[in-house]
Amino acid sequence: MRLEGLLVDLVPIDKRFDELEHKWENGEAAFWGDAGGRNFFSHASVEAHQKERAEERAKGGTTWVGLGIQTKAGQPIGVFFLGNMNPYHRTAMFGAQIGEPDYWGGGYGTDALLLAADYAFNWLDLRKVWLGTMRLNVRVIRQMEKVGFTLEGTQRGMFLAEGVWYDHLMYGMLADDWPGYAAMIDKLGLKVRP
Ligand SMILES: CC(C)(COP(=O)(O)OP(=O)(O)OC[C@H]1O[C@@H](n2cnc3c(N)ncnc32)[C@H](O)[C@@H]1OP(=O)(O)O)[C@@H](O)C(=O)NCCC(=O)NCCS
């Protein structure tokens, strides 16, 4: 499966992404992705986790889908997850991590989010997607606002980041509110990069 966007494509997570996971999980992106966590992951633990995921997938019945985010030139820059997928309620939780900080703030994550939302609503027939972030994460908050997610809940003082406690903000979007990938690209004025 390959979801083709303007700035990025979402593709199956292959060896190229696996090889970068150790760098990404020990880099700055992990601090934001893990809401303030500063963990160290050995090569062995990353490989064990990859093996576990592969075994889980092979067994079937997983409740998550992971996709690689790559630039239009084919450079792997991060991953996007649809987790906690519930076929009865038709809901899923989103999670994104661009592991290469040079690619933050340039619209790549938003293009990935739009592709994932379109996939969730128009292909998987989900009726709701949601995601949570710490209040310190201004890039995600800005993304949620511009893409039209609703702030649905706040859990106070949930995350410790650099010695300060931050709220957990929970955002959601319903399928009925989703205008479609092309309409969102138009609305946001996302442009192909030269
Ligand atoms: C979260 C993430 C996927 C977003 O992708 P991205 O490509 O950086 O996001 P975009 O550039 O599409 O949008 C970010 C917006 O935040 C804005 N922004 C960036 N830095 C900002 C700052 N310091 N203050 C306010 N806004 C800021 C950008 O200008 C942009 O808004 P704009 O389009 O109106 O200019 C990416 O930043 C990332 O992987 N970060 C590290 C991991 C992480 O935070 N994961 C999510 C955990 S919930």
Textual characterization of the structure:
By secondary structure, the chain is of the alpha+beta class. It has a single domain (3-188), classed as Aminopeptidase. 35% of the residues lie in helices and 32% in strands. The chain has helices at residues 15-25, 28-33, 43-59, 108-123, 138-147, 181-188; strands spanning 3-4, 8-12, 65-71, 76-86, 91-98, 128-134, 150-161, 164-174. The chain has an 8-stranded mixed β-sheet with strand order 1-2-3-4-5-6-8-7, with helices on both faces. Helix 1 packs across helix 3. The longest helix is centred in the N-terminal third of the chain and has 17 residues, at 43-59. It is globular. The chain binds coenzyme A (COA). Coenzyme A (COA) is lined by residues 29, 32-33, 78, 96-98, 104-110, 133, 137-140, 142-143, 146.
Write the layout of secondary structure elements.
Layout: E1 3-4, E2 8-12, H1 15-25, H2 28-33, H3 43-59, E3 65-71, E4 76-86, E5 91-98, H4 108-123, E6 128-134, H5 138-147, E7 150-161, E8 164-174, H6 181-188
Coenzyme A binds next to helix 2, strand 5, helix 4 and helix 5.
Q: CATH homologous superfamily - what is it?
A: Gcn5-related N-acetyltransferase (GNAT)
| Level-2 CATH architecture | 3-Layer(aba) Sandwich
Structural class: alpha+beta
> Unreliable runs, pLDDT <50, ≥5 residues?
none
Could you give the count of β-strands? 8
Looking at the structure, the CATH topology is Aminopeptidase
**Kindly, what is the distance between the CA atoms of the first and last residues, rounded to a whole number of angstroms?**
26 Å
CATH class: Alpha Beta
Number of alpha- plus pi-helical segments: 6
- From N to C, what is the helix and strand string? EEHHHEEEHEHEEH
Number of domains: 1
How many whole angstroms does the radius of gyration measure?
Answer: 16 Å
